[in-house]
Amino acid sequence: MIKGFPKIQRAMLLEPSINTHFSETDTVCVEEKMNGFNVRAILFDGKITAITRGGYVCPYSTEKAGQLLNIDFFNDHPELVLHGEMVGPDNPYVPKKIYDDVDSIDFYVFDMRYKGSGEPLPVYERRKLAEEYGFTQTRLFGEFTKKEAPEKIRAIITELGKIEHEGVVIKDPDMNIPPVKYTCSQSNCADLRHAFRFYNDVGRDYLFSRVVREGFQAFEWKESEEDLKTRCLQLGESILYPMIDAIGEMEKGERVAEEVQIRVSSLDTLFKFKEYLRRQGVEAIFDEPEKVGDEFLIKIRKLNKSTNDKTLSMFKGELW
Fold it and tell me: Is 104 exposed, middle or buried (0-12, 13-18, 19+ CB in 10 A)?
């Protein structure tokens, strides 16, 4: 039994959230929250297999996990499930070039849990084990007392925001208490820029929650009038510009699409991934494979049907 990765709740106000949620521990560990897609890796029939957040075996993620991960870990620790974030430009789910040190795609380990029970390893035990097998890991910023943690985390978030990284995950060192996450304003706005381009395909809760995060963060940080105006301008631009661009594309007769790419060693993986997306109900247009070294680079346009149909209906004079 491979359990799903538990949902991580979000801190809206750092100080009260840390004091209340981590009331039974004196310190918290702060690790980076990577911007990619969540994968669980196991050994199945002698092969490393990658399971997505939704519980599907993704053929592309499976090929990449097999290339990136040391199989000895799974042979030596068959009782453990490896949890990681797959990030990089060759990413079919999160089309962002964020991490300068990732040329294609990489697997960042952030958790290890026992099969069946789903119980996690303590932070330092997990990090030591990951280092032993040569895994890439999410960055550990440090372990802080609860009193100093809010100010430390704010400083970390400020620096991460400058390079457009996502945020942090705050953890009990022993992992007896579930982690919580906290994100940068720039990450919220990046999500909104992407979402409002496909305004009729993305859920209202997704959009609303990110606006609310901005309000709570601005309040807790007690921003100056100038900083607050900058935040408001950044938020508004993230909402309107991508939507206006999408409407303009539709006026020209183009279809609004999400552009991503994958890099595979075998064209068989490409064919399996095409079928995988089809079964997921994703309409996608694949370019011809381009040979890059020993691999094939394939650019993909994932069409967002609801936004396309809704926008086209507006040009035909239909009412909202």
Answer: middle
